[in-house]
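for the recovery benchmark. tokens below, seq after
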């Protein structure tokens, strides 16, 4: 049996390593932190969540729920740990980020088949089975190596990767910018001015809500659009991911856009007045101790001093102490439709697989999911088997179908949504019912596929540790 090299012990790489090891396959897991840092990670732990602490909706029959259901059925280590370290967050699955990555690191360290190598990987050996899971902040040396490897494979879609960070020009559609939201200390929030509530009173009232009157909103809006951003570098033309726009960018699209986005007040009646405020800023618990909260949807790239000044205009945050300010980072990803097949293997180099954000998905859950899938396929290759992709009707199958079949000339990473799933054969007008049926079908197909995997000559998966 061959061993597998996994590069990057982030969300995708940690899950991939675990999936290989639990199938009896030896893994060399390369992680460059703390020897070499990234601009966003703050610790040396594996699977560090760099921004929000949310692993998206846990509400039944939503697309993120479906993907998580499939991941649970496939025995995801990281989802198991997410459940153990979850913090109250209404319908969302949010975790204590410190405890989460600590437990992932411990689980990987305890696994005898995984050898952790704290070093930067800079070369990819074509003969070795390798999973590249180095994320949006892949080191420059490895980026150059990926470029070399993919230059023979990317005939369909121009350059395979964006390298402007390394000074090499590239088309603008192969990167975007992600931003992170600020975190404040809980005891610096003025509790007299805020209230706990769940939108439409559905679920538990886990969010702190900072209500704004029209006058407060107008003053905040004017200060926000006038505030100074971190300067752009000359060669950078900021190209944001639409799903994660900085608040100042949303604000520039119109005076009311924030009120229909991250500051939406609907369903958040203030119990003290019985009325819905003009706008609301929501704060979500960061950790199990509940001593810090993040400003939901407030990712931004204003200068730190400007952030402190503008965000303290939010009622309840007048004296806020910031544990982390919003920041912005480049996100690097390959041109997956030109380079990958449905098993996440490279077309031209089938022993090389990609997983996580770098393979063209967006988001924590999607990164873990592709890590799980790449780990499974790599383990199959290691025992001489032929990887089989999950069915198209599943959330896994749809996500991977998108990244491998989208238009290579204009490829944009994606989150899991119902848009990616195939339409049902019968037309159902009611949206909820349609989604319920799509989920039902997807899970049935996924279970069938998992069952058929048992035919592949690898030992049955072990239980995820409690
Ligand atoms: C600033 C920022 C904020 C984000 N915020 C969110 C968010 O709020 N919610 C969300 O769902 N998604 C967010 N994302 C997107 C994405 O979900 C995360 O980046 C996620 O961590 C991606 O998982 P990954 O496993 O692909 O990469 P990572 O978790 O980043 O893991 C990659 C690992 O590879 C290591 N590495 C890199 N190069 C090498 C090398 N050459 N050798 C060895 N190791 C290497 C890195 O140190 C890192 O540990 C954000 C991304 C960025 C950049």
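predicted aa per position
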């Amino acid at each position: 049996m061959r061993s597998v090299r996994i590069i990057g012990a982030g969300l995708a790489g940690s899950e991939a390593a675990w999936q290989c090891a639990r199938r009896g396959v030896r893994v060399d897991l390369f992680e460059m932190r703390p020897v070499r840092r990234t601009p966003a990670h703050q610790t040396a732990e594996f699977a560090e969540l760099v921004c929000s602490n949310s692993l998206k909706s846990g509400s039944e029959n939503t697309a993120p729920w479906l993907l998580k259901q499939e991941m649970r059925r496939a025995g995801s280590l990281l989802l198991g740990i997410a459940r153990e370290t979850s913090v109250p967050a209404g319908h969302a699955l949010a975790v204590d980020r410190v405890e989460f990555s600590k437990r992932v690191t411990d689980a990987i360290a305890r696994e005898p088949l995984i050898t952790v190598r704290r070093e930067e990987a800079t070369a990819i050996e074509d003969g070795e089975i390798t999973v590249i899971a180095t994320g949006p902040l892949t080191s420059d040396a490895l980026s150059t190596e990926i470029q070399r490897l993919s230059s023979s494979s990317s005939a369909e879609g121009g350059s395979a990767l964006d390298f402007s960070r390394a000074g090499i020009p590239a088309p603008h559609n192969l990167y975007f910018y992600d931003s992170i939201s600020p975190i404040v200390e809980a005891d610096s929030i003025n509790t007299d001015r805020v209230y706990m509530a769940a939108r439409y009173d559905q679920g538990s009232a886990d969010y702190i809500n900072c209500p704004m009157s029209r006058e407060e909103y107008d003053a905040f809006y004017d200060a926000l659009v006038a505030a100074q951003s971190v300067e752009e570098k000359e060669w950078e033309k900021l190209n944001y991911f639409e799903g994660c726009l900085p608040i100042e960018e949303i604000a520039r699209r119109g005076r009311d856009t924030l009120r229909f986005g991250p500051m939406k007040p609907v369903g958040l009646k203030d119990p003290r007045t019985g009325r819905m405020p003009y706008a609301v800023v929501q704060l979500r618990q960061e950790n199990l101790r509940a001593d810090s909260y993040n400003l939901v949807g407030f990712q931004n790239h204003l200068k730190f001093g400007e952030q402190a000044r503008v965000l303290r205009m939010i009622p309840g945050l007048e004296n806020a102490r910031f544990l982390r300010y919003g920041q912005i980072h480049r996100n690097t990803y390959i041109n997956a439709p030109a380079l990958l097949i449905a098993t996440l293997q490279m077309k031209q180099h089938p022993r090389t697989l990609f997983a996580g954000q770098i393979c063209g998905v967006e988001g924590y859950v999607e990164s873990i999911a592709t890590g799980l899938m790449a780990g499974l396929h790599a383990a199959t290759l290691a025992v001489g088997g032929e990887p089989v992709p999950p069915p198209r009707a599943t959330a896994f199958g749809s996500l991977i179908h998108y990244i491998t079949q989208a238009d290579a000339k204009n490829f944009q990473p994606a989150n899991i949504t119902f848009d990616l799933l195939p339409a049902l054969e019968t037309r159902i007008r009611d949206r909820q019912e349609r989604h319920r049926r799509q989920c039902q079908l997807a899970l049935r197909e996924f279970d069938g596929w998992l069952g058929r995997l048992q035919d592949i000559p690898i030992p049955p998966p072990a239980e995820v540790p409690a």
